Amino acid sequence: MRFSKIILYIVLFVLSACSEKKEGAVEGTVIPPNARTRITAAQNGRTIMTAGAKVEDGKFRMVLPPGTYDISVTMASAPFPMTFPGIAVEAGKTTVIPRIELSQHSGNAILSGRISPGGTGIRVTILHEGSELASANAAADGSYEFTGLSEGRYTIQVSAADYARDAVEVNIAESARTTQNIRLLYVSTVYGVDWTTGIIRATGTGLPPPTANAIARREMAKRAALADAQRNLLKIIEQIKTGPNENLKAFLGDTKYAQKIHGFLQGYRVTAERELSDGTVEIELELSLTGPDGLSRYITD
Q1: Would residue 7 count as lying in a domain?
Q2: Number of structural domains, the chain?
Q3: DSSP bridge pairs for 199
């Protein structure tokens, strides 16, 4: 009888090992460890598997069929879940999620808003003191909300397919409700736009007048180069879109477009200045496309 049990255990172990080779696994560690921590693997909004983390060390492991999953971690004492979208599981391999630190209830403030243009797959992440605090998918209309926040300065990061990643900083007062809307910019091919770094760049040239003295010639060429670079920045901005078939002017209207873009252009940075052998001056300007000082801030209501 004892020999039969040993054989049975061996068979079960082999079958389990073979199963994991055909399937894959996701594992990680949740801090702080808690008996009520739940980890959920979902595909297309449908829950595939739910598991708990170990009370002693917060570790968890889920064996799953190969595929891409959204892994969410929740804890009763935390105000919102931490979600990791697009986690790939490969047959016979283990995908390790970085250590997950769930925030405890530490305040009564609320942060909410709307991400335009809305739709599915919009990811909103908030950071506090440089660390990721929480992340969640916005609703179909682009609305989002985080509760249980403490007083302080936060960074909101947003990503969505076909749109430029963006971020904005916001101050949250104790026990207050703060609203922060964000308008995303549609990624398209525009010369002078670096969508990866979120920067707009333009170069201008200025010719020196033939009759002025040397000092005046250079200053006048420099002013002409600066004006030319600003015109080129404006030409680039005119091509930026807020949607597949909508540019900034159509989105804002002529009057508001002129006001907002004029203010935005005043924030340029001179990143290079060159004087050529014939006295011509070249100037390179930069503007932030995204981020706290980016174009998206100027067009967000």
Answers
A1: yes
A2: 3
A3: 194, 288
> What distance separates the 2 farthest-apart alpha carbons in the chain?
110
Q: How far apart are CA 220 and CA 216, in angstroms?
A: 6
Q: Which residue, chain included where needed, has tokens 């989105």?
A: 251
Query: What is the per-residue pLDDT across 197-231, written as a single tens digit (0 to 9) for each?
Result: 999 999 999 988 877 677 788 888 999 999 999 99
Looking at the structure, tell me whether residues 43 and 123 fall in a common domain: no
* Helix, strand, or coil (residue 38): strand
**Sign, CA torsion 39/45/47/49:** negative
Please say whether the beta carbons of 48 and 21 come within 8 A: no
In-domain check, residue 269: yes
Domain boundaries, position 167 = 106-184
Final residue in a domain of this structure, among 132, 164, 184: 184
- Write down the pLDDT at residue 78: 62
Q: What is the CA radius of gyration of the chain?
A: 27
For position 47, which CATH number holds? 2.60.40.1120
Rounded CA separation 92/37 (Å): 26
Residue 84 lies in a domain: no
* Cα(102)–Cα(134) distance, integer angstroms: 8
> pLDDT tens for residues 118-146?
888 898 989 887 777 788 888 889 999 98
Q: Using an 8 Å Cβ cutoff, are 248 and 240 in contact?
A: yes
| SS3 state of residue 181 | coil
Strands 59-64 and 24-31, bridge-based pairing: antiparallel
Q: Is 144 exposed, middle or buried, given 0-12, 13-18 or 19+ CB atoms closer than 10 A?
A: buried
- In whole angstroms, how far apart are CA 240 and each of 91, 147, 188, 205, 296? 42, 34, 7, 23, 11
Question: Taking Cα atoms as reference points, which of 212, 236, 208, 213 lies closest to residue 224?
Answer: 208
Model confidence at 272, in pLDDT bands (50, 70, 90)?
Answer: very high
How many Å apart are CA 59 and CA 211, to the nearest integer?
78
pTM of the shown model:
0.68
